[in-house]
Amino acid sequence: MLRLHGGSREYHLRRRxxxxxxxxxxxxxxxxxxxxxxxxADPQHLDHDHRTGWVRGILCFNCNGGLxxxxxxxxxxxxxxxxxxxxxxxxxxxxxxVFTNAGTxxxxxxxxxxxxxxLPGRRPLPPGxxxxxxxxxxxxxxxAAAEGVVMAGDRRATMGNLIAQRDIEKVHxxxxxxxVGIAGTAGIGIELMRLFQVELExxxxxxxxxxxxxxxxxxxxxxxxxxxxxAMQGLAVVPLFAGFDLAAADPARAGRIFSFDVTGGPYxxxxxxxxxxxxxxxxxxxxxxxxxxxxVDDATRLAVEALYDAADDDTATGGPDLTRRIYPVxxxxxxxxxxxxxxxxxxxxxxxxxxGRMENPGG
Length: 363
Description:
Largest sheet: 8 strands, antiparallel
Number of helices: 11
Number of strands: 15
Helix content: 25-40%
Radius of gyration: 27 Å
Shape: elongated
Distance between the termini: 76 Å
Structural class: alpha+beta
């Protein structure tokens, strides 16, 4: 016997409702294994909108029959409110107009209209300082190289005088050609970084083109400005942004670095920069060793050395942990795109730096 789409039930579900047995079981699991209306056990009937085909839930025999009768009586598909994936939407299954109308290319602006409470800076906070309530991320360094830019971050997050996390990741790709590192309140910083990634992807999908590197820096500045209220209560986030400028006239100067203040002011840096509690010591190390035209490999080694020097003098910065095999996160942005060094590559560099300092502690 010929089995269509894995069996007669699979074929029936796909032909009539556009879903398969796998999707049926996932929806049933979301409902807790019970009828979406009465909560009865072992529901087996898919409820869908007859006009749009939108699958709204899985019902028991009685509830499904009752809805069919109400439809025949002219009540249409205006069914009772129930807890399933379509709850909160128009009974027709259509998305609200705000999702389908032509809108802004800024996802942050869109979110401020549709769900402003989801933006990091829009959430109400109790009065008083809150700086000691959350872990803080620390040191990030960025170095311009001949082929692009290198960014590296240590792995420690602190909470007062305690180590809150030993392996936090503070450096991430913002998009295909840019990087962002966070210092400050770790939770808000990670959320802001993810929102920034969506912001850039949303712009590219809406406009059909990638933002310029300056445009990306300005978008990030606007998002930081939106967190000013929380920053004034001690929950500040100060990122470091860097990337490969595809529009650069001179490819050797395509690696660019931007820093920001807590109010969102963007500043382009020359050659290198560092943020976080260990930035003073990291920049002191970079100032001595940086030279224009470094290769990406040399800049990578220099970034790890700068983080080592920062950890040597700043308790909130974590140095290479050879025992636990926790090493800095190192990423590059070049004409080929962004790339994160593998753990093995970073370990080799970090172990070489530590071995060198065993012979010459002062560097």
